[in-house]
TrEMBL record, chain A:
InterPro entries named in the record: THDP-binding, Transketolase_N
Alphabetical keyword list: Thiamine pyrophosphate
Required co-factors: thiamine diphosphate
Top-level division of the source organism's lineage: Bacteria
Membrane-spanning ranges: none
Protein name, UniProt field: Transketolase
Residues of the Transketolase N-terminal domain: 15-269
Gene3D superfamilies: 3.40.50.970
Family: Belongs to the transketolase family.
TrEMBL record, chain B:
Classification lineage: Bacteria, Candidatus Kaiseribacteriota
The protein's required cofactors: thiamine diphosphate
Name listed for the protein in its UniProt record: Transketolase
Pfam families: Transket_pyr, Transketolase_C
CDD domains xrefs: TPP_PYR_DXS_TK_like
SUPFAM superfamilies: Thiamin diphosphate-binding fold (THDP-binding) (SSF52518), TK C-terminal domain-like (SSF52922)
Gene3D superfamilies to which the protein is assigned, alphabetical: 3.40.50.920, 3.40.50.970
Family, similarity comment: Belongs to the transketolase family.
Species whose genome carries this gene: Candidatus Kaiserbacteria bacterium RIFCSPHIGHO2_02_FULL_55_25
SMART domains found in the cross-reference section: Transket_pyr
Length: 286, 331
């Protein structure tokens, strides 16, 4: 993947900021849902849908498309927001999140929304599905890539390591795992609940190529995806170090924001913070 | 007498040929794969035991060894299916759909992708391995999941046909198999259609009871029908190979005609075939019903014959159940 120009980087950052605003708006409207994870993955999902993935919003069933499996389905707001901004459905529909009759279920359901690759929420099973797709793609001789976005907390699940072992053993080099290493889970910090470190070494010992990036550095993440595509011997996992709640100071790094939405008054503050780029510019929306 | 429309084997009452339903699955899988290149097979370290070795030998590129990892087995298959393949996954039923039940629920049933789950070693007739390996709750686990179809073949030939039918069925399917060799009752000509129960025995006169049986115990139901006929009691026997979707038309018609029902299965009474039929008949045609099945107990080690008798699944138990339900009907 070609390196980004400074102007392009600015474009991506602007888009990610719009995605964050949509996330806050949809969570307020929903009145429930997860805040920290979606905000923390906004940069990566923006990079995926606007640069990395080969996909076509107008033809979601395109057989040659890359597949993105969202394993930790609870960060669905970031997926929905990015998909809407990428043209899969109107951005206004994001406000139906978690409402009766909505295509945007609390956790993603493939059969309800075209463009979703799977149904997810229960943790630890996404990498298995992605590995199945990667294997099937290889059997077919297809040239696409399979991506699997995971949380760090879901690495507590045995199923995930079964999949990691399988992908390593079968050298599924068309598979890229992306781990949101934000260090929080529902009950607290990952290293106090069930330590994952040494995390890199765990994946390496399972036969994976491991890259670590700053999950808010869009050019660095895109470059890592390019490197993953160039590794022919192994699957690659990109451990993306992220700040949960990134973009809103009150939420950043606070695990209590894992599973709750902002109230109306909080949202007003948060949106102002996003729209002014943390006070750097005068908002047009005040 | 055997229903001639069913083309059953002539020797079903005197030392018929025996084969395990898992054998029929193994044959059916190769036939299905010959006809459809989308079929792949995944196994969790039980290739020989679940009779996948012929497939693995013929189609090594389409055979995937997963190791002892049933949760991965199910979710991997979901990925294969979402990518356009038709995966068959095999293990023992206690592990799949036992251990991996949530993965099946979320990534296969709710996701609604055409994974075919094959659970072998169902029932107490697994024998010496004991309770840990004798699945008695798998029908219950599978039939409560929306989108899932549940098939429990009565013999190896029907298992072969069920495998072929499952390959063509547009959705997830669970096929329940047994370890032990059991009598072959059906022939290549015997009709098989998912969701269509087979009337295999007709009483010489108006039936007083109808026996609904599933799996290899259909043979015990036939032996019971023959014994009852000698005592002058007419019954019908229906092979309910598909537990979901239930053949409502046939079951209600037979229950209405007989006015009394006995259900027979090598499974917990709770949640199995008998429960499914009771749920239906309570609404459509309430009649007295007796349940031949496992009464809220785990299995144990023993020979298959010992265990079938111990858990009350033998021919005499079916005969007794018929007499009991007849008493309830007339009292």
């Amino acid at each position: 993947m070609d390196a980004l120009s400074d102007a392009e980087v600015k474009q991506f950052e602007k888009k990610a900021n719009e995605v964050r605003q949509t996330i806050i708006e949809m969570l307020v409207a929903a009145g429930s849902g997860h805040t920290a994870g979606p905000l923390g993955m906004a940069d990566i999902f923006t990079a995926l849908y606007f640069r990395v993935l080969r996909h076509d919003a107008k033809n979601p069933e395109w057989p040659e498309r890359d597949r993105l499996i969202l394993s930790n389905g609870h960060i669905a707001p970031v997926l929905y927001a990015v998909m809407a901004h990428a043209g899969y459905f109107p951005v206004e529909e994001c406000l139906t999140l978690r409402k009766f009759g909505s295509r945007l279920q609390g956790h993603p359901e493939r059969e309800r929304l075209s463009g979703l690759e799977t149904t997810s929420g229960p943790l630890g099973s996404g990498l298995s599905q992605a590995a199945g797709m990667a294997y099937a793609s290889r059997v077919n001789g297809d040239k696409n890539r399979i991506y699997c976005a995971m949380s760090d907390g879901e690495h507590d699940c045995g199923n995930l390591w079964e999949a990691a072992m399988f992908a390593g053993a079968n050298r599924l080099s068309n598979l890229t795992g992306i781990v949101d290493r934000n260090n929080i889970q529902i009950d607290g910090y990952t290293e106090s609940i069930m330590p994952l470190e040494p995390f890199r070494e765990k994946y390496e010992s399972f036969g994976w190529h491991v890259l670590e990036v700053d999950g808010h550095n869009i050019p660095q993440f895109i470059q890592a995806c390019g490197e993953a595509a160039a590794i022919y011997e192994k699957p690659t996992v990109i451990i993306a170090h992220t700040i949960p709640g990134k973009g809103i100071r009150e939420i950043e790094r606070d695990y209590r924001w894992h599973g709750k939405p902002p109230h109306q008054d909080e949202a007003k503050r948060f949106l102002a913070e996003l729209r002014t780029l943390q006070g750097k510019i005068v908002s047009e929306h005040e | 007498m055997p229903n001639t429309d069913q083309y059953l084997k002539a020797d079903i009452f005197d030392s018929p040929d025996q084969a395990a339903t898992r054998e029929g699955f193994g044959k059916g899988l190769v036939e299905a794969a010959d006809a459809d290149e989308r079929i792949v097979a995944l196994c969790a370290d039980l290739t020989e035991s679940t009779r996948m070795e012929a497939f693995a030998k013929k189609y090594p590129q389409r055979y995937i060894e997963v190791g002892v990892a049933e949760q991965n087995l199910a979710a991997l298959a979901s990925g294969f299916a979402a990518y356009g393949k038709i995966p068959f996954i095999t293990s023992y039923a206690t592990f799949s759909p036992g251990r991996n039940n949530e993965q099946i629920r979320t990534t296969i049933s709710l996701n609604n992708v055409p994974v075919k789950i094959v659970g072998s070693h169902a029932g107490v007739s697994v024998g010496p391995d004991g309770a840990t390996h004798q699945a008695l709750e798998d029908i219950a686990l599978m039939r409560v999941q929306p989108n899932m179809t549940v098939v429990s073949p009565c013999d190896a030939e029907e298992a072969r046909k069920a495998t072929l039918a499952a390959a063509k069925w547009n959705g997830p399917v669970y096929i329940r198999l047994a370890r032990e060799k059991t009598p072959i009752m059906t022939t290549a000509e015997t009709p098989f259609e998912i969701g269509k129960a087979n009337l295999v025995w007709q009483g010489k006169t108006l039936p007083q009871t109808v026996i609904f049986a599933t799996g290899p115990l259909v043979h015990n139901a036939l032996l019971a029908a023959q014994a009852l006929e000698k005592e002058g009691l007419a019954v019908n026997v229906v092979n309910v190979h598909t537990i979901k979707p239930l053949d409502k038309e046939t079951i209600v018609r037979e229950a209405r005609a007989a006015g009394a029902v006995v259900t027979v299965e090598e499974h917990q009474i709770a949640g199995g075939l008998g429960s499914a039929i009771a749920e239906l008949l309570a609404q459509e045609c309430p009649v007295p019903q007796e349940f031949v099945g496992v009464r809220d107990l785990f299995g144990q080690s023993g020979t298959p014959k010992e265990l079938i008798e111990h858990y009350g699944l033998g021919v005499s138990h079916i005969v007794d159940a018929v007499k009991k339900v007849l008493q309830r009907k007339t009292s």
